[in-house]
Amino acid sequence: MTTLGFIGLGAMGRPMAMNLRQAGHALWVHARTPQRASDLLAAGATLAASPKALARAVEALFINVSDDAAVEAVLFGPDGAMAGLAAGSVVVDMGTTSPAATRAFAARLAESSVSWLDAPVSGGESGAKAATLSIMVGGDEAVFSRVLPLFQVMGRNIVHVGETGAGQVAKACNQIAVSATLLGVAEALTFAAKQGVDPVKVRAALLGGSAYSRILEVHGQRMLDRDFTPGFRSGLHQKDLGIVLNEAREKNVALPVTSVAAQLLNALVTAEKGELDSSALVMIIERLAGVDQ
Fold it and tell me: Which residue of 60, 143, 216, 256 has the fewest C-beta atoms within 10 A of its own C-beta?
């Protein structure tokens, strides 16, 4: 495949699309705010007036939008991509979408002989820019093999997890683990501060032992620096945990830690801090503990 489309040029999508373009692929893009495509157009991409117009020109369509409703609109809304996709083409959803909606979208596309891969990512904006994302993929293995060289342009750890929806299940698992670890780091640093012990030195000590994690290293430093510039916005994290808990309810799975994390993210977003990085959860933990910052 050489002619590609990309819809969803936000903080993650734009660098991912740029990596595809810089790898030499012909690239069509569509954005509700055309200014978001300016650097891509300067790099040789072509701007399409609608998802339908874009879909007519490409062999593979990559989508990285915010939620189920946004994917639905891109594919099946007025001037949606479905009206332009040719039989044999592939749609790759790289955002975080619910497994149930994912399977429904794939079934609708299959009626027109269009393939689907759900391929959500982890690694944040920095990983998107550096092409070091972790990409977890669900869908037909032959289609995955066909698209793998394109994934390798955007990411480093690429795993075919299973059939349609498995990629989104893996992303849900990622968010469960990330949420629990974020809370643990926030509580540990807050506990140190409440005890009158320097949380900077506590973090340094923990980095050398069994408590080490990438989140302690990166997000722990953000908490200490009060640098909540979004790598992954709290509002999006809130949305993702909503997906997780809805799926858990359907399957009768108890996720007590994730439920607490979701409630604390609700509080953070309610405090009009949904645009901050999700490491800002520490602000809620500190408030509950009466720690001044």
Answer: 256
